[in-house]
Amino acid sequence: MPIQITGIPFVPPQVTVPGIIGFATQAISSALWQAAQQPPAWGIFDDTGALAVEPDSVLDFTNRQEYDIAQFPVQKGSFSDYNKVLKPFEVIFRLKKASTVDDRATFLQDLDDLCASLDLFLVSTPERDYQDVNFERYEVVRRGAKGAFQLTEVDLYGQRIIEVQAQYSTTSVQTPDAQSEAALPTSNVGNVQPGNPDSQLAQDGQLALSTQAQFPQGYN
Fold first, then answer.
1. Are the CB atoms for 140 and 157 separated by under 8 Å?
2. Any domain includes 110
């Protein structure tokens, strides 16, 4: 009869059937093979579906979602959606790249291009995709002997870009009680055609030119 120790539940011994182990091993191998054929769950993809950067592995990932809440006192029962504003989320990757010197140089150049780009990227993780992300900076930290021969800590920072469609409206100014012409809005009455001045305007112009000739500019 099996001995049961107080406080520890009794677990009956498992019966091993020879054919079951082989079947389970084949199922696990099949599942691993199928998982290997799937596209990578982690990645930063451009609008064509291509990887923007290709690290050896993703060491850490951070997603920060923040809401701005009004700091001033709010009347009881009047807390509304304009008192709590959704801010663009931020993503932080910690990447690793080893391989050859040329591969690491290409990786750093890809990071330069990624952070300088105005394009929007898709950040893919196993549980969720983050769309419309633009990357603003990256930091390379090299520590110890491994850091001398591989990029062990490359932190990449991105933020969502919220784009909205521009909306335009036309308004009319109503001034029925305007007391002067200066208060009236300007209106387009067509193109003004040049014409010849009348005799009085021509005489005034000639007088102004003759006066300017007698008293040149700068004369006091």
1. no
2. yes
